[in-house]
Amino acid sequence: MEQLFSSFLTFELQDFGLSSNMSLWQVLLLTTVSLLVGILGGFVGLALGTIRLPTMLILGMPPAIAGGTNIMVSSLSSLSGAIKHWREGRVDLRIVLLMGVPAFGGAFVGGFLSGVVDEGILLFLAGLLVLWQGMEFLIIYRNRVKKNQSSGPLFGAGLEGSPGLFTRGRIAAEAGIGLGVGLLGGSVGLILGSIRLPALIRVLKIDPRIAAGSNLFIGFFMGAVGWIGHASQGEVDYPVLVSMGITAMLGSWYGARLTGRVNLDTLILVMGFVLMAVGVLLSYRGILS
Question: For 91, phi and psi rounded to 5 degrees?
Fold first, then answer.
């Protein structure tokens, strides 16, 4: 039995004729992590590539290849969850156009420019921002519980069922955030929905559940166009991409089903913890880079 286990640990995908330097046990672990992250991500409206990417790096995947592989896994995870949110009416096409189109363009350019800007600095700054946003969600949840509110104000407005505020100033702000997030995410191999999501809620004053569905929809397209830049430079592990992509899609689909079954306060609480965890992971990864 011990010999069989040792043999299992030494199997590499190359032994099966696949073009990857990863071991079989590493791929199985990454596939499991991708499933669990997909469930959580589909629930809160995030692809959560910021959890998958550090796992891939810890297991020894080269940073450039990990980034190129991860951004497409995130895109596939977003697609699966976005379809479910779309069918249940939680995707606003105005948001997709206003914030998504600039994000797509930024991700396309960022994918080709990966490696030009220091990745560690970008990840560290993004981590601090996401961490702060996560703490803000938890503060809001605490205040709502103290006041015994179930649909009270969120970021200064009662947003449960809110159609949003689409003024020129808010639209311009969202477009700028989308472009910046696209450039940043495309260059490091992340779709950074954890930055877009709070921005959607704060700036447009939109229902968090609509923001979650729209955010996943944007994440799919942003990840796909950002991946083109990485793929053109050979920065993708395709066998790992397939295995992680499939389980990420399945997990995200199931997670999206849970979104409409919980109350708004629970959704805010989960978002807060997820954003804080993502912020810590990003900052830590930036320090190590």
Answer: -125, 125
